[in-house]
C-alpha cells in the first residue's frame, strides 16, 4: 500500500512539474494606479478574449498565471484606458513588469525574459513614432498647400525612420519571435511598415531563422504564405514593367455607384488623364490627400483630368457624409472592404491611401503618387 502511495506521489509531482513547465506567470506593478482595472487578453479567431482581469489594490501589484502556454505566445496587457502592452510569453516564463501611471507603456520595464524585453523595446520605439506622427497629423486640416506639403514630407520621414529601425531590429534579432511583431507593425495603425515585393528578402531571412529555433511555430506558416504573396507580386511587377512598353495595358474594369445610386465606369473615361484613387473617409492621411488634390483637380479638370475615387468604407453613411462635408467635386463611388471589394482586389490594393494614374491612352503611368510628385506627373501627362 505504501509502495502504491509512493508511486502515486511521484506521478503527482511529475505531473505538477510538467504543468508548471508549460505554464507562465506575469507579475505586474504599476505605481500610481491604485484602483485601475487590468486585463490579460489574447486574440483568438479574429476577436479579443479576456483571459483574466483584476483591479489593483493598495500594493498596486497583481500577477497573472497562464496555463498551457505554447512557445512564443502573444498576449496583451490592458490597463484601464492608459495603455495596452503586448506580451511575448514562453512556457515556464516568470515575467515581471513595472511601470508608472499614467505613461504605462513609456515607463514600462521588464525582467525575466529576453524576448519580452525586445518586444517592449519595439513597442516603445513605435510609440515615439506615433507621437510624432499624431503631432503632424493635427496640422493636416490646414488649407495651406505649402504646410500640407511639409506635413506629407514629415510623415514620409517618420515612416522611413521607423522602417529603418524595424529593419535593423529584425536583422539583429532574426531568431526572436519579437521580430515577427517588428515585421507586422503599423505606423499609426494605418501604415504597414512592410509588405512591398522588395521586403521579401527580409521576410525570407526571418522565416528561415525562426524555423530553426521554432520548427512548429504557427506564425512561421503564415509568414511563408505572405512570402509566397510577395514573390508573386514581384513577378507581377516584372511582367507589368514589360507590358508598360506596349501601346496599352488591359486594366481591370471598375463599375460602381455613387452616393445617389448612379453607376460610373472607369472605361468611360478613356481619352482623359484619370487618377483612380482608393481611400477611407476615416483616414487622416486620405483626408489630407483630398485637400491637396482639390486645387490640382480644379486646375486641370477642364482640360481633361478626372478623379475616379473609390471608397472602401464599410460605413457607407460615413462615406456619404464625408463626400458632402468636404464637397468633393470628382467621381466618388463606394466599394466597402467588408464585401471583398473586387476593384481593390483586382488592382492589388494592400495599403490605404493608394492610387493609379492613367494616361489618355489607357496606360498606367504611375502608382501611389502624392503631393508634388503627383502634380508633376499630371502636368507632364496633360501636356502630351
Write the CATH architecture name of the largest domain: 3-Layer(aba) Sandwich
Q: Outline the low-pLDDT stretches.
A: 6-20
Strand order of the largest sheet: 15-14-13-16-17
Number of helices: 11
Q: What fraction, in percent, of the residue positions are helical?
A: 40-55%
Radius of gyration: 26 Å
Number of domains: 3
Q: In percent terms, what proportion of residues is strand?
A: 15-25%
Q: Quote the CATH topology of the largest domain.
A: Glutaredoxin
Order of helices and strands: HEEEEEEEHEHHHEEHHEEEHEHEHEEH
Characterization of this structure:
With 384 residues, this protein is α+β, with helices and mostly antiparallel strands. Helix content is 44%, strand content 24%. β9 and β10 form a beta hairpin. It is elongated, with a radius of gyration of 26 Å. The termini are far apart.
Amino acid at each position: 500500500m505504501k509502495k502504491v502511495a509512493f508511486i502515486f506521489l511521484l506521478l503527482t509531482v511529475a505531473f505538477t512539474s510538467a504543468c508548471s513547465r508549460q505554464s507562465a506567470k506575469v507579475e505586474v506593478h504599476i505605481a500610481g494606479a491604485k484602483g485601475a482595472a487590468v486585463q490579460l487578453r489574447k486574440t483568438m479567431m479574429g476577436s479579443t478574449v479576456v483571459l483574466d482581469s483584476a483591479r489593483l489594490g493598495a500594493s498596486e501589484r497583481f500577477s497573472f498565471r497562464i496555463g498551457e502556454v505554447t512557445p512564443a505566445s502573444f498576449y496583451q496587457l490592458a490597463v484601464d484606458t492608459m495603455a495596452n502592452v503586448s506580451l511575448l510569453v514562453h512556457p515556464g516564463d516568470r515575467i515581471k513588469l513595472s511601470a508608472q501611471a499614467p505613461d504605462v507603456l513609456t515607463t514600462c520595464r521588464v525582467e525575466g525574459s529576453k524576448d519580452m524585453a525586445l518586444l517592449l523595446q519595439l513597442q516603445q520605439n513605435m510609440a515615439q513614432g506615433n507621437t510624432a506622427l499624431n503631432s503632424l497629423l493635427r496640422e493636416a486640416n490646414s488649407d495651406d498647400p505649402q504646410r500640407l506639403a511639409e506635413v506629407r514630407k514629415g510623415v514620409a520621414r517618420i515612416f522611413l525612420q521607423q522602417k529603418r529601425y524595424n529593419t535593423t531590429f529584425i536583422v539583429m534579432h532574426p531568431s526572436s519571435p519579437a521580430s515577427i511583431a517588428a515585421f507586422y507593425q503599423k505606423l499609426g495603425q494605418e501604415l504597414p511598415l512592410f509588405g512591398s515585393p522588395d521586403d521579401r528578402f527580409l521576410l525570407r531571412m526571418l522565416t528561415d531563422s525562426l524555423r530553426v529555433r521554432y520548427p512548429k511555430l504557427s506564425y512561421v506558416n503564415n509568414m511563408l504564405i505572405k512570402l509566397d504573396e510577395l514573390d508573386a507580386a514581384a513577378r507581377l511587377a516584372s511582367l507589368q514593367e514589360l507590358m508598360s512598353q506596349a501601346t496599352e495595358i488591359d486594366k481591370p474594369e471598375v463599375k460602381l455607384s455613387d452616393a445617389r445610386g448612379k453607376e460610373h465606369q472607369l472605361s468611360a473615361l478613356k481619352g482623359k488623364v484619370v487618377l483612380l484613387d482608393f481611400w477611407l473617409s476615416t483616414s487622416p492621411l486620405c483626408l489630407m490627400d483630398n485637400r491637396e488634390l482639390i486645387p490640382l483637380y480644379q486646375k486641370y479638370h477642364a482640360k481633361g483630368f478626372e478623379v475616379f475615387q473609390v471608397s472602401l468604407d464599410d460605413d457607407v453613411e460615413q462615406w456619404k457624409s464625408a463626400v458632402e462635408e468636404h464637397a468633393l467635386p470628382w467621381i466618388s463611388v463606394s466599394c466597402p472592404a467588408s464585401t471583398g471589394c473586387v476593384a481593390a482586389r483586382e488592382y492589388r490594393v494592400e495599403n490605404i491611401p493608394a492610387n493609379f494614374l492613367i494616361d489618355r491612352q489607357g496606360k498606367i503611368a504611375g502608382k501611389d503618387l502624392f503631393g508634388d510628385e503627383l502634380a508633376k506627373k499630371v502636368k507632364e501627362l496633360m501636356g502630351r
